[in-house]
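Per-record layout

source: marine sediment metagenome
name: Methyltransferase domain-containing protein
length: 194
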Amino acid sequence: MVRKNRLPKFPEDYLNDKAEEYDSSKWMERNQKRSTLYSLQYLIDEKLNDREDSGIEMSASSLILDLGCGSGFSSVILIENGFRVIGIDILEDMLSKAREKKRNFDDYKDLELILADINYLPIKPNSVYHILSISSYNFITYGMENFGEKVKLINDTAKYLHKILKNKGRIIIEFYPKDDKELKMFNKSFINNG
C-alpha cells in the first residue's frame, strides 16, 4: 500500500530535539508497537509453512534483527515475545533513546544496540533467525537520485539480508513506498535475491 501522507524527512525528523519528540510521542509508540505485533504474526502464520516442521527455532534464544530500531519501540515488543534482539540504527540520536531504556529497565537485557547502516550490516552470514523492519526500510536509498544506483543498492541489501538469515528464517518489512513504482522495485529486490 502506498502512503498518501507526507513521509518524514530523513534524517532531519529524527535528530536532536526531534528524536526526543519522536520518543515521547504516545501515538508513535502505539503505532510502532501495533505494527510490530501485526508483523510478528507472519513468523507463525501456518499458511506460509508449518512452524513445527520449518526447522527454524522459535524460542527465547531466537535472535532477531530490528532494522532501523530507532528509540526501541519495536524492540520492546520483540523482547516481550521472547526474542533476543539486535537493534540497528544509523542515527546516534535515536539509539541514545534506546540505550536510555536499556539502562533503566531490566527487561532490556536481551537487547543489543549497534550503530550501523542497514545497507552495510556488521552481521555474519547465517547468524539470525529473523529480520524485522518497521517504518524505516524506505529510507535506505535516502539521498540517492540515480535510479540504477538505487536498484543496485536495494538488490545488494536484499541479497545480504537473505545471506545473514538462518535457513528458513523470515524477513518482515513494513514500510511506506512513495508510489507503486517504488513498491515494485523493493518487492522485486526480495523476489530476485532471496
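summary: The CA atoms of residues 8 and 95 lie 18 Å apart. The mean pLDDT is 84.
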